[in-house]
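User: what does the whole thing look like in 3D?
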Amino acid sequence: MDKLQLMAMVQASTGIGIGLMIGLGALGACVGVGIMCSRFLEGAARQPELMPQLQAKVFLLLGLIDASFIIGVGLAMFFAFANPLLAVLR
Amino acid sequence: MAASAELTPTEYIGHHLTFNTHPFGDGPFWMLNVDTVVTSLILGIVALGFMWWVVRGATAGVPNKRQAFVELLVDFIDVQVKDIFHGDRRFIAPVALTVFLWVLLMNAMDFLPVDIMAKIYEHVFHLHNWRGVPTADVNTTFALALTVWALMLFFSVKIKGLGGWVHELFCSPFGSHVLLWPANFLFNLVEYVSKPLSHSLRLFGNMYAGEIIFLLLWMWATTGTADNFYSGTIIAPVLGLGWSIFHVLIVALQAYIFMMLTIVYIAMAHESH
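Assistant: Here's the predicted 3D structure for the full assembly of 363 residues, as structure tokens:
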């Protein structure tokens, strides 16, 4: 097949892959953060005096939950700009 | 940046994301990212040197603002360690403080504007490729995470003894029956491998993705005048402002999370069953 055609095929698949990586990662991260924050609001409503400590824990857990998503975004960016699958064709 | 030819977007991003490498031998393993090493060394000296300088002039009477700031910082870290680790804090708390300060300063290099810094590196220091954020290099974050991992292994073996550690490797958490040994070992292996991986890649991913999003936004801002004045030039700086403010939070938060996980992993290594 024509080399240009092959490259276009690889790029198209990579584009879809990048979209899925970022989209599904964002879905998981946002649902997880939403659940955690709703529990925080519930807990803060029950015991307002604990709110500062709970808030500190919320930020810590936010970073931990976001981890896989951000790793996915990093990988997706890597595929977007330095696609190793294209290197085979060169 | 090349002023003669026009850069394509990929070339612009590629130029900003190329390391200043120096080969120390044959093969890709022996390429050293000089920019990462030099920047992280300088920042480490700045961070710890500042602490040392303030502590050297410390008084037991009324503290000046510098000393009060350092005392606040040390107290903050001490409280965090005390909440998690109920043993002798004299080793872990300084490790936590070093990790926190160093990672915070390395992350904060991301605040410096990319293109202005590139101009400075190009014209003042004559470096064609220089990446200023050490923690956006996977090598730095892996080095930090592997050091924490080595500390974790060291403390595990020290507290439980070599025999006790191997016993725990094969017999927890399912049981000490011989048939369960492979399951236990696989479980523990996954735990031991996933900890440094997630520890390092979380920090790397946040910083690297942050840099790329900044580059993409500024590219959109500069090319917006080409077709539609409103799309790039107006919206991109607004989004860029929002992302910058968010990134300030991320920089501090990721340094804090890295420190907390360091404390948690080393504290968990001290537990014996």
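In plain terms: The helical segments of chain A are 3-46, 51-81, 84-87. Chain A has one domain: 3-87.
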